[in-house]
Amino acid sequence: MTLTPKDTGWIEVICGSMFSGKTEELIRRIRRAEIAKMNTIIFKPQIDDRFSSNHVVSHNQSKRESKLVKNAQDILDLSANMDVIGIDEAQFFDGEIVDVCKSLAKTNKRVVVAGLDTDFRGEPFGPMPALMCEADYLDKFRAICVICGNPASCSQRTTKNAQQVVIGEADIYEARCRNCFEPPEN
Predict the structure, then answer these.
(1) Which residues are part of the catalytic machinery?
(2) pTM of the full predicted structure?
(3) Which residues pair with 174 in a beta bridge?
(4) Do 174 and 156 contact (CB within 8 A), yes or no?
(5) Alpha carbons 182 and 176: distance in angstroms, whole number
(6) Is the pLDDT of residue 127 over 70?
């Protein structure tokens, strides 16, 4: 018996707060697949061009070539000859990303998805809850709370902007534990 699927595809989801290492882990898994001589590709949504338009980049500055896509359907079209498909910042896609991941896995592809599970209010973010339910493998990463040093699973926005999607880094967000997290008032 094996714990790694053979002759089938699957979905791996890496979730957690900002600064928890999700993109770093996505890059690590893709590198390992490349060492195993697998064809890989990474996608990210067009909205996320913080560090680079043609790379996924972690907060530690690890990076890997990627393709910007307008919508989830583009991922299907560009993944035909790939064995392993990485998708970063999945929370920014619409619900179609779930069906795309399921379709890819059904065609014997390994799909590695990373994204924020909750937004700055502490509420489920975009398609991530559905992706987490579809995952064959699920990892929830935690950062370190900048206030008390405990494990942090919340993304604290430090500005008053009330929009759900505000692209930013340490200039706008902090990792916080449950006790130090202060969700905005509605």
Answers:
(1) 89
(2) 0.91
(3) 156
(4) yes
(5) 9
(6) yes
- Give the Cα separation of 141 and 105 in Å (integer): 23
CB atoms within 10 A of CB 46: 13
Sorted by sequence, the CB contacts under 8 Å of residue 6 that are 6+ apart come out as: none
Distances (CA, A) of 132 to 25, 62, 110, 118: 16, 25, 15, 12
Contact, 10 vs 136, CB < 8 A?
yes
Write a three-state SS string for the chain: CCCCCCCCCEEEEEEECCCCCHHHHHHHHHHHHHHCCCCEEEEEECCCCCCCCCEEECCCCCEEECEEECCHHHHHHHCCCCCEEEECCHHHCCCHHHHHHHHHHHCCCEEEEEEECECCCCCECCCHHHHHHHCCEEEEECEECCCCCCEECEEEECCCCCCCCCCCCCCCEEEECCCCCCCCCC
List, for residues 12-54, the tens digit of each pLDDT value: 999 999 999 999 999 999 999 999 999 999 999 988 666 666 7
Domains in the chain with CATH codes: 10-141 (3.40.50.300)
The type of residue at 174 is: E
